[in-house]
Prior knowledge:
Elements: E1 2-7, H1 20-27, E2 32-37, E3 50-51, E4 61-62, H2 64-73, E5 77-80, E6 86-87, H3 89-95, H4 111-124, E7 156-157, E8 160-161, H5 164-167, H6 171-180
Parallel strand pairs: 1-2, 1-5, 4-6
Antiparallel strand pairs: 3-4, 7-8
Helix pairs in contact: 2-3
Amino acid sequence: MKIDILTIFPEMFEGVFKTSIIGRAVGTQAVEIKVHNLRDWSDDNYKSVDDHPFGGGAGMVMKVDVVDRALTAEEHLIFIAPHFEGIDHRVHEQLADETYSIGPYVLSGGELPVMVVVDSLCRLLPGVLGNPESLKEESYSEDMAVEYPQYTRPAEYKGWKVPEVLLSGNHKEIEKWRKGK
């Protein structure tokens, strides 16, 4: 299995992927993991990967154009570790095959959830666990609700448009839209 991870903090993964179950999976070549700095696909001098959200709100949103360039450069199983307020929702709508949440809580970024998912996948690979019977007795949790979609600049990319209400400046309508998602 090949896994690529897109993040703005690649150094966070160094120790985690060398130890325990993931380290064993990498060591036995059951999985090949490459961690990439998302800033490598930014096209400005500042290596920006985020911008302010349309419709206002706290935090910054990861940009769809940067993520698109990174995704088209890699193949295999690719995880995006979002940071800031989230990721432009067009990534979920147009680029991602699947979107996951590991629980109803807030973390400082997407790096830890990616580590959790990679760890859970590596456990399933043949020869990685010391006792394969362990897999038969493991627990799991069901899907949880996630936050409303987030968007940032550009307002239109490859014909994928930000919902008009977020560009309107009408905060009551924006709040209504967000609550409906």
